[in-house]
Design a protein that fits this description.
Residues 1-255 form the EAL domain. It comes from Rhizobium brockwellii. This is EAL domain-containing protein. By secondary structure, the chain is α/β, with parallel strands linked by helices. The chain has one domain: EAL domain (TIM Barrel, Alpha-Beta Barrel), CATH 3.20.20.450. The chain has 10 helices and 10 strands. The chain has helices at 3-12, 60-83, 97-101, 105-114, 137-149, 165-171, 181-186, 191-206, 219-227, 247-254, and strands spanning 16-25, 31-41, 47-49, 90-94, 123-127, 153-159, 176-179, 210-213, 232-234, 242-243. It has an 8-stranded mixed barrel with strand order 1-2-4-5-6-7-8-9, surrounded by 5 helices. Helix 5 (137-149) links the parallel strand 5 (123-127) and strand 6 (153-159). Helix 2 packs parallel to helix 4. The chain starts with a helix and ends with a helix. It binds guanosine-5'-monophosphate (2 copies), manganese (II) ion and sodium ion (NA). Sodium ion (NA) is lined by residues 157-158, 178, 180, 214. Manganese (II) ion (MN) binds at residues 35, 94, 126, 157.
């Protein structure tokens, strides 16, 4: 069975679920947010990560359906965690280009949160530069601008890997830059990676943006990033993405 068809089937059978990876604040060591990452559950109990079905995000109908399910899961989980008094911070939701094409992303997000009484400042929308490849700049900018006025934060994901990154920082309302894992992986052994990380941190400071370093796996990377003024860290050093049942336990062990 072809992977995109398998995802479609999993969607109708409610087998597409979020896993959550913590993002930790450098200032106080507290959990600043959890990024929601979609996973497909197979009937044999195994879990398939998004990297293995990335084709699904280029099919606009399947991608739209994934976002619908993830938005619903995320809003449900946030409501539950709020009711339990968990200090989870915010939740990051990944969206793709096709989510902006229909022109209803704002109302879908506002609807999912308002119906559960959740303020929009609990949500971080993670966008990659691929949302600009389709001539959607104006739609994307307008949608994000309107959502930001309601309290939502915008993160530019995989920063440094796309084309014309700097242009997008000027035209897009961005609160957080997420430095791609490939730079963090090599920053301690490759001087140009380190220089690029430092440059992004300085740029973000001038533009009043926060920076999340992705793929932090070692203490040395974390210390180096901390010393250069990075705002938040994400990676296996803190935790792999976990299923929703483990978030409460993670937070109590953390504090
Ligand atoms: O979790 P994993 O390493 O498999 O993620 C692979 C890629 O899939 C990541 O780049 C991530 O941005 C993307 N991704 C993960 N979850 C979602 C999601 O819910 N929606 C979208 N659009 N992309 C996602
Ligand atoms: O593109 P995006 O940034 O959304 O992708 C995030 C993905 O990267 C997550 O799904 C997660 O599986 C993976 N990831 C997060 N932290 C680490 C890490 O420390 N090491 C590795 N190898 N992968 C990571
Ligand atoms: Mn992401
Ligand atoms: Na990323």
């Amino acid at each position: 069975i072809q992977i995109v068809r398998e995802v479609e089937l999993a969607l109708t059978e409610q087998r597409m679920v979020p896993h959550y990876q913590p993002i930790v604040s450098c200032a106080d060591g507290q959990v600043w947010a959890f990024e929601a990452l979609v996973r497909m559950q197979r009937s044999d109990g195994s879990v398939v990560s998004a990297a293995q079905f990335h084709e699904a995000f280029t099919d606009s109908s399947v991608s739209h359906h994934i976002t619908t399910r993830m938005l619903d899961h995320v809003a449900t989980d946030i409501r539950k965690w709020m009711d339990r008094g968990l200090k989870f911070g915010r939740v990051g939701l990944n969206v793709s280009a096709s989510d902006f094409m229909r022109g209803d992303l704002e109302s879908r997000i506002v609807g999912a949160f308002a119906s559960r009484g959740i303020p929009l400042d609990k949500l971080v929308l993670e966008v990659t530069e691929t949302v600009f490849l389709q001539g959607l700049e104006d739609t994307v900018a307008t949608t994000l601008q309107r959502l930001r006025k309601k309290g939502l934060a915008v993160a530019l994901d995989d920063f440094g890997t796309g084309y014309a990154s700097l242009t997008h920082l000027r035209s897009l309302p961005v609160d957080i830059i997420k430095i791609d894992k490939s730079f963090i992986d090599t920053m301690l052994v490759d001087e140009s990676s380190l220089a690029i990380v430092e440059l992004v941190l300085n740029l973000a400071r001038k533009l009043n943006m926060k920076v999340t370093a992705e793929g932090v796996e070692s203490h040395r990377q974390a210390m180096c990033l901390l010393n250069m003024g990075c705002t938040t860290l994400q990676g296996y050093l803190f935790s792999k993405p976990m299923d929703r049942e483990h978030v409460g336990g993670y937070l109590s062990a953390f504090n």
